[in-house]
DNA sequence: ATATAAAATTAGTCTTAACTAATTTTATAA
DNA sequence: TTATAAAATTAGTTAAGACTAATTTTATAT
């Protein structure tokens, strides 16, 4: 149906549309895919011709209903495979993303639904991201970050925004995973560092960037 | 490591080297991959440069030790995924080959071994083909076909040579699968058709071609 | 309003992996 | 042995999807 590149662009545009309200520009897409804006312009033309996106210099790139539906299905496959890799094959949560980047492109009409069933219809992937349903409905993702909380609040780690190995391995070192209980004790005025207590244990200080990449419940 | 095309060529050359002693020519490879001999000549040059094959006009194409090792690993992945698709996701044996053709190219150092373990280290894939071991050893495949048997012999279906949907669906209709018991009752002299009894049930006549594509134990 | 910087676009190049058409080499049959 | 057919190879083309460099458009700051 789609080429590998087309799918990666669709997914990238979808992700950008989810993670903020900024205009989706060729440069933004180029950054997210780590390629050249000139290449992006070419692909924008191609996807526009295929009626998967619309591009307006003022409004930026938008997925059409068809483009959105298919982007969501790719994300669905990605997240289901991540669950499989972690739960069935015993990978750690910092190893699964790159493999799922390849698996998500396997095209078979019933594969995702069978995998979904096999995994017991999981709601969230191992990073706390919601898994789109077979009908294309996407459960609402978590949106409040650790950095948004008021001093003294207790919370549960629900998801991570950054899925890079370095961030996930740092979390592992701090004994933080999905479900971990965190209490925000103090915000350092100087640089917005956060003093937290992890699972009621001794205090730890983390950066603002760190706090902004943890979604809580 | 390798491109999709390189992997498909390696696998194709490996398969040709397994299924007969004929010289592996550009034309033979072209047929097996359904593409043009001219394209094959290009790729032979490329794989030769990479020292994965050797090509001699007299002897044809041969895999080098490195090429052989990697071809076997691709086949290993293919067959393991076939087991997964059948046993875990509930596909039928005529549906799995094409999906495994895509899955076999997922490259991750430990994926095949984890999958192998998850599946309980299966010896054979759903078509009866032996699954190469992690160390590259390939169990000996079955080699005696139904057409090779003497009249009156009883046998167990061990593997199928042809994995096309049409053949597998025909087998399904006849209630023949891996493990089915077959007794060869008669060979029709005229066209080598075979009269067989399936699981001791009523007699059926099948073609010579059919008999040559069933491997027995 | 104008200068400057950033973003978008165009033009042209490259690589991979296919193809067709033409040619050369090798095998086969009369 | 020679004619013919088949196979292999070469030459040239195409398409996708990336790139760089140059240019044009748009945004931002003085
Ligand atoms: Mn991921
Ligand atoms: Mn994830
Ligand atoms: Mn197969
Ligand atoms: Mn098989």
Automatic annotation (TrEMBL), chains A, B:
HTH dtxR-type domain location is: 1-64
Database matches in SUPFAM superfamilies: Iron-dependent repressor protein, dimerization domain, Winged helix' DNA-binding domain
Where's it found, cell-wise? Cytoplasm
Family under the similarity heading: Belongs to the DtxR/MntR family.
What's this chain's function? Answer: In the presence of manganese, represses expression of mntH and mntS. Up-regulates expression of mntP.
Subunit and partners: Homodimer.
Q: What is this protein called?
A: Transcriptional regulator MntR
- What is the organism field in this record? Mucilaginibacter lappiensis
């Amino acid at each position: 149906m789609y080429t590998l590149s087309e799918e990666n662009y669709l997914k990238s545009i979808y992700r950008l549309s989810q993670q903020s309200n900024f205009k989706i520009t060729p440069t933004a897409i180029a950054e997210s895919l780590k390629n050249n804006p000139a290449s992006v312009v070419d692909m924008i033309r191609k996807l526009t011709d295929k009626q998967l996106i619309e591009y307006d210099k003022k409004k930026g790139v938008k997925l059409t209903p068809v483009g959105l539906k298919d982007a969501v299905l790719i994300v669905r496959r990605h997240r289901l495979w991540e669950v499989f890799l972690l739960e069935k094959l015993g990978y750690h949560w910092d190893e699964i993303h790159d493999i799922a980047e390849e698996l998500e492109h396997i095209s078979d009409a019933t594969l995702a639904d069978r995998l979904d069933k096999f995994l017991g219809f999981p709601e969230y992937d191992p990073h706390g991201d919601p898994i789109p349903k077979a009908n294309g409905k996407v459960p609402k993702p978590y949106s409040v970050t650790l950095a948004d909380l008021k001093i003294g609040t207790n919370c549960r780690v629900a998801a991570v925004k950054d899925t890079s190995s370095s961030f996930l391995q740092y979390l592992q070192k701090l004994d933080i995973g999905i479900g971990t209980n965190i209490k925000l004790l103090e915000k350092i005025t100087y640089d917005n560092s956060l003093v937290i207590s992890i699972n009621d244990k001794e205090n730890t200080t983390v950066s603002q960037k760190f706090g902004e990449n943890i979604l809580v419940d």
